[in-house]
Amino acid sequence: MTQSAMEYRWLLPGSLRDAQRRERPRVRRSTRDWIVDIVIFLLSVGMGLVTAEQVQAEPGLPEPLRVADQLLGAVACIAIWLRRRWPVGLTLVLIPVSFVSAVSGGAALAALFTVAVHRPFRYVALTGGLNLATVPLYLHLRPDPELSFREGIALVTLMFLVVMIWGMLVRARRQLVVSLRERAERAEVEAELRVERARHLERERIAREMHDVLAHRLSLLSVHAGALEYRPDMPSQDVVRAAGVIRSGAHQALQDLREVIGVLRHGAEGAEGIDPARPQPTLADLAALVEESRDAGMEVTLDMRVDERAEAPAQLGRNVYRIVQEGLTNARKHAAAAAVDMVVAGGPGDGLTVEIRNPVTGGQPIPGSGTGLIGLTERAELVGGRLEYGRAPDGGFRLCAWLPWTA
């Protein structure tokens, strides 16, 4: 998992409350925030100026009340700059202020709009309900000369409802955008994780393949080196032949080891010098594998009971080859110079059975990781097969695998 994916896992929102928390006001405004705040401030001032002219023309209103109305309206417009930090508190304060000051009505609408945009519906219902509750009393004390009482209530109520609905629509749109953005980011991270997982599995698969190959080659080298150690009197041509096999096998083992390191370090695609189209073993290569073990001095009997071996799927042939290869490697470790009996039987629809039997004579002290048979079991189970191994009734060792072969 990459670092960005691990960081994002802790940043994923758990609920809508997280999205709401991100929408809450920040101390530092962005350029867009400044533009929006200036526009809302100018709209509030503009509505206040229009209302101030109406207040000046209102008959029967004492001059001190006109001046107080305009001063409260100016203070309310200035207080609009606090709407992002305390939207609910500012709205609750402006409700009584707008009740006594008509000039502050625009600021009260702006504050109510801010609550609808940045707070859940319960706060919108509270502040909007209080504003609507003051409308009848306000129109009763200061009736509109051009509208009847009912028409005034309907007009002001409609204005408050439009402001609240507009603000809630803006809020819903913002939450939708946030949700879509998070969904896209989550999908991107999940895709990255899937790719990383696929690469990891591919590296594991290639490393398992190369482990089997290396174990086989190195066990052959050990056998030939052991022959030179225990038979120093063998003919010179046999010594030369064994040394040539050791040199060739060591060269191939080093090449395989280089590929393993490249795969594990860079991945299957980025390992320099690795041919991705390298031929994979098939059922037809079993004979060459057995012959290679015979050249190393093993007595191997192969009973091939597969008629349609050329029609076997590539994956099936590769898995059978690796199972036989690991079985022969184990036989060299634990049953040196002992006869190894191997049977490969089956066909389309019936599956393919591989059985390897050999006595346990101790063999040569060839070190191993102890994970070869475990890896073979995993390989068989991944394709829907099964693999069993252990002591046979006659005291020898038996390895038996069954792999599916669809007709």
Describe the overall structure.
The chain contains twelve helices and five strands. It has helices at residues 3-11, 16-23, 31-56, 63-79, 87-100, 105-118, 121-141, 149-230, 236-266, 286-295, 314-334, 372-382, and strands spanning 299-305, 339-347, 351-358, 386-391, 397-403. The protein folds into two domains: 3-189, no CATH class; 281-407, Heat Shock Protein 90, CATH 3.30.565. The protein starts with a helix and ends with a strand. Residues 1-25, 268-277 and 365-369 have low confidence and may be disordered. The radius of gyration is 42 Å and the shape is rod-shaped.
Question: Tags for this entry?
Answer:
alpha+beta, 12 helices, five-stranded mixed beta sheet, Heat Shock Protein 90, ATP binding, 9% strand, 407 residues, Sig_transdc_His_kin_sub3_dim/P, 65% helix
